[in-house]
Write a structure and sequence with these properties.
The chain has 136 residues and is of the alpha/beta class. Strands 1-2-3-4-5-6 form a six-stranded mixed β-sheet, sandwiched between helices.
Length: 136
């Protein structure tokens, strides 16, 4: 697991799991998160547990460009109807991303194509980073 002041993330094979605290990350935290992601060329999916907020517009633009360029599927778990609507709108513009309610983790795993055999381990990974973020 990797962490900074606002975010925790980890990898399982070709999938990245991310959880962040409420509000957008600061520039240093975001740069650290993005640099680590860019270094993993084999990624095919990202699952994010979003917590009361979204990346700033400039951060979002960098992420969206990365998603498009690498054809990586993104699944965002959030209880915010507004955030889910925003994610849905992004998908209308060709970004391979989809929003889910927090209790739809299995559907998110399906969307990012995590193998059935790896879902127990993926769930543990997600629970671990979420628990870390919820403590800070």
């Amino acid at each position: 697991m990797r962490t900074n002041a606002s975010t925790a993330w980890d990898y399982l094979d070709a999938c990245r799991f991310v959880a962040h605290r409420p509000g957008p990350p600061n520039d240093d935290d975001f740069a650290h998160l993005l640099a680590d992601m860019i270094g993993h060329k084999q990624l095919r999916g990202v699952v994010v547990r979003a917590s009361e907020g979204a990346p700033r517009a400039d951060h979002r633009a960098l992420l969206l460009r990365w998603y498009r360029e690498h054809a990586v599927r993104g699944a965002v778990l959030t209880d915010s109807v507004v955030a889910r609507g925003g994610v849905t709108a992004l998908s209308w513009f060709g970004v391979p991303i989809r929003a889910f309610e927090p209790d739809q983790l299995d559907a998110a795993f399906e969307y990012v194509q995590i193998d059935l055999q790896q879902r127990v381990q993926a769930r543990k990974c997600m629970e671990h980073i979420v628990s870390w973020v919820d403590r800070i």
